[in-house]
Amino acid sequence: MRNIFRTALLAMSILALFSCRKEYIYDGPTMKSVKINVSPNAWQYSNDIDNNYYFATVQMPEINASVFKEGLVKMYRVYDWDDPSAAQTELPFVRLNEFEGDDGVFYFYTETIDYQFTPGEITIYYTMSDFDYKYDPDSFNPGPMEFRCVVVY
């Protein structure tokens, strides 16, 4: 009985091994990595009735119609690029934050950075979950940020 079980297991393993097939459609992609610096004055406030956010639009000729339909675009937020302690985090980026206000009360919000792209450009969005910036958009400007966009085609 034990031999029958082993033989059946071996047969199933061989069948599974040969029933899967991998085919390379395109091996060895071409890639471009582009560093994007967003200055404080590049951020625009949406100024909608509700659910406001900041956004910055960057011209990206690297994202052509072919890349848009068949390629891959990934974004990373970059910290201290020229420093040995440089770090990156993939977008969308979500971070929980707290701070103590002047009144001694702790306040909480979630910061989200995401993006969308079309052929020729990419738009980066910055949103805070408490939407406090609607009271004074100029004082909540996200400030300078660095990103890295990777385009694979």
Q: Helix and strand string, N-terminal first? A: HEEEHEEEEEE
Low-confidence stretches: 14-19
Strand order of the largest sheet: 2-3-8-7-6
Oligomer: single chain
Structural class category = alpha+beta
End-to-end separation in angstroms reads 54 Å
Strand element count = 9
Counting H and I runs of at least 4 residues, what is the number of helices?
Answer: 2
What general outline do the C-alpha atoms trace?
extended
Strand content: 35-45%
Range of helix content: 10-25%
Radius of gyration: 24 Å
Query: Averaging pLDDT over every residue, what do you get?
Result: 85
Sketch the major β-sheet: 5 strands, antiparallel
Features:
five-stranded antiparallel beta sheet; extended; 153 residues; 2 helices; alpha+beta
What do these coordinates show?
By secondary structure, this protein is an alpha+beta fold. The chain has helices at 2-19, 65-70, and strands spanning 31-38, 44-45, 54-60, 72-79, 87-90, 93-100, 106-118, 120-128, 145-152. Strands 2-3-8-7-6 form a five-stranded antiparallel β-sheet, with no helix packed on it. A four-stranded antiparallel β-sheet has the order 1-9-4-5. Strand 4 (72-79) and strand 5 form a beta hairpin. The chain starts with a helix and ends with a strand.
